[in-house]
Amino acid sequence: MEKMDRRDFMIKSAIAGAALGLGSVKPAGAAQSGVKIGVFSKHLQWLNYKDTADAVTEIGWDGIECPVRPKGHVLPERVEEDLPKMVEALKNNNLEMFMATVSFHDLAEPHARTILSTLKKTGVKLYRIGGWKYDLDKPIPDQMIKIKEQLQAIADINIELGLCAAFQNHSGTQYVGAPLWDLYDMIKDMDINAIGSAFDIGHSTVEGGYVWPVNARLMRPLTKIVIVKDFTWGKDKKGRWRANWGPLGDGMVNKDFFAMLKETGYNGSIIQHFEWKVEGRTEKEVQKNSLKAMKKDCETLKFWLSDVGLR
């Protein structure tokens, strides 16, 4: 999805370079020892593929998670043409696509099988799923049985294609997987090479509070990839308590989580998400400030990982 011409990017690069103090873009080169870190490129969709790779290199990540879904960085109807372009742009900067993100829940949905076959062709073996919701007017166990059947169907096609799906836990009243015990029960007996957990410590902390260590250890044997973001509690205009996403290190997510990852031998990748609104008077200023915020979060994550010996 080529969204910006070269002239526009030169302007934005100058802004980003001034904001980050990083100078000219250079390929990442030899990979940093320890776990690799990436960014959900949903937050960089105002850049085309080459320029996304350049921005990722500038900020200091090792790769990306790429949304392959409606309004995503790669559109489902163009996946055969555009996903290889994104993968190639990343490879040119010695970066990886750690995971793709899809929106389908059923292989009969439009473009689902084409997306999976294209992932296989391009060598992207992991993709993220999630987003089911429970009907609170119906028995939860009965719904879990039906969702488990859908997950098993996805796992079966993954075995055939050599792919793996990772289910992300979200926080919210009706989200399947929010309590984590339900997700564990549904996938614990499935092939770990075909389906597992995209463990989101941010959402887990929203739902679990003090019990996040229990949830993290419950899901650890099933964890294929880790997602990181931070939040604080606050009241909305109606006086209701809400989780407000914000910079890593300013909120409730405990860096002891990364010590637990080290202790349990985790050697997968970690993806950073940025779900808070960055202010600015103009679109360019918002983009500039977003890059600065991403750089700061990337540095915080690297410090935390280094502190526990994961990087």
Description:
By secondary structure, the protein is of the alpha/beta class. It contains ten helices and ten strands. Strands 1-2-3-4-5-6-7-10 form an eight-stranded parallel β-barrel, surrounded by five helices. Helix 1 packs parallel to helix 2, helix 1 crosses helix 10 and helix 3 packs parallel to helix 4. The protein is globular. The relative contact order is 0.13. About 5% of the residues have low confidence.
Structural class: alpha/beta
pLDDT < 50 stretches: 18-31
Shape: globular
Mean pLDDT over the residues: 91
Q: Give the strand content.
A: 15-25%
Which strands sit side by side, in order, in the main sheet? 1-2-3-4-5-6-7-10
Helix content: 40-55%
Total E-strand runs: 10
Order of helices and strands: HEHEHEHEHEHEHHEEEHEH
Rg computed from alpha carbons, rounded to a whole number of angstroms: 19 Å
Distance between the termini: 33 Å
Largest sheet: 8 strands, parallel, barrel
Number of helices: 10
Helix-strand layout with pairing:
Blueprint: H1 6-20, E1 37-40, H2 49-59, E2 63-67, H3 79-92, E3 96-101, H4 112-122, E4 126-129, H5 140-161, E5 164-168, H6 181-187, E6 195-200, H7 201-208, H8 212-219, E7 223-228, E8 230-235, E9 241-246, H9 256-263, E10 270-272, H10 283-308
Parallel strand pairs: 1-2, 1-10, 2-3, 3-4, 4-5, 5-6, 6-7, 7-10
Antiparallel strand pairs: 8-9
